Amino acid sequence: MIDKTISVLALASCLLAAPVLAQSVNLYTTREPELLNPVLEAFTKDTGVKVNTVFLKDGLEQRIKAEGANSPADVMIMVDAAQMIAAKDAGITQPIKSAVVDKAVPAQLRDSDWVTLTKRARIVVVSKDRVKQDAITYEELADPKWKGKLCIRAGQHPYNNAFFGAYLARNGAEKTEAYLKAVKANVARKPGGGDRDVARDIQSGLCDIAIINTYYIGLMSQAKNEQKGWFDAIKPLKTTFANGGTHVNISGAAIARNAPNKDNAVKLVEYMLGEKAQTLYGDGNYEFPVNPDVKESAAVKLLGTVTPDATPLTEIGKNRKAAADLVDKVGFDN
């Protein structure tokens, strides 16, 4: 096994105190072990490089900063482009120089210091029984025909903050403010709860339409409890902006600024963009492969292909604070 179940503190102490093996790489991540372990095990089997993994629910950036120049971290894997951008801004990353990365990952889904590993789309779902359409634009969520029929997570939740940041990057502050007011006018209940809750509320008849991250749809499809009924009640729509492209967020990787095993760090990042790893990693959480050469995945089989919005994730990140301010200004979550 690549990762032995030991405490984060004990593992980090061992890494700091002991010499690093020539054929090893040290990974710090906020992702769940069950999602990462299959692909990490495959990496070690195929390359002979052992992966020492520190799983951190919170505080990854702060830990690496505290460890300073002696940090054993080689690679960081996190969820959400905002976390990747924050890691770069904190000065704990370094440029990834790799022809494999440049070829496998579209330009809008990477930065000099971090790269997308998988995508999760934010799409619209509707009642399978009550709504008879198969495609929609994000702009249509503001249509008064949905008044009293829309369920949505809190506007300040990171998922919606990123979506509104994308809308702002595309349309500017005035149009985004008007959009937020119109969407708020359509809600069936106060924005809140989780993405699976909106599917539950569609099943109950509280709402007819909602916005949700695709991996929740996949997880509900395999549920052995009431969530399978929630899945059965909804229909995912092909969802894009009016001029094309679906809003996505990501899981991503960066190489630590003081990586002691930089070559193996690059090797791990490159490996995770290959066909085997993209399938193992993405299918565990119904996330879409980022490598366009990987055509088959659990998410694609369930939901079809997704063409990401061309707006760079870095541009969306720059607009997230302004989007949050607009959410507060219109009282979206009140």
Structural account:
Keywords: Iron, Metal-binding, Periplasm, Signal. Residues 1-22 form the signal peptide. InterPro entries: Ferric-bd, SBP. Belongs to the bacterial solute-binding protein 1 family. The protein is of the alpha/beta class and 334 residues long. The protein has 2 domains: 8-119 and 248-294, 3-Layer(aba) Sandwich (D-Maltodextrin-Binding Protein, domain 2), CATH 3.40.190.10; 122-246 and 314-329, Periplasmic binding protein-like II (D-Maltodextrin-Binding Protein, domain 2, 3-Layer(aba) Sandwich), CATH 3.40.190. It has 14 helices and 12 strands. The chain has helices spanning 8-17, 33-47, 60-67, 81-89, 99-104, 158-185, 195-204, 214-221, 227-233, 262-271, 275-283, 298-303, 313-318, 320-329, and strands at 24-29, 50-55, 75-79, 93-94, 114-127, 135-137, 150-151, 209-213, 234-236, 238-240, 248-256, 288-289. The strands form 2 sheets. Strands 1, 2, 3, 4, 5, 7, 8, 9, 11 and 12 form a 10-stranded mixed β-sheet that branches. Strand 1, helix 2 and strand 2 (50-55) form a beta-alpha-beta unit. It starts with 7 loop residues before the first helix and ends in a 5-residue tail after the last helix. Mean pLDDT is 92; it is low at 1-12 and 14-21.
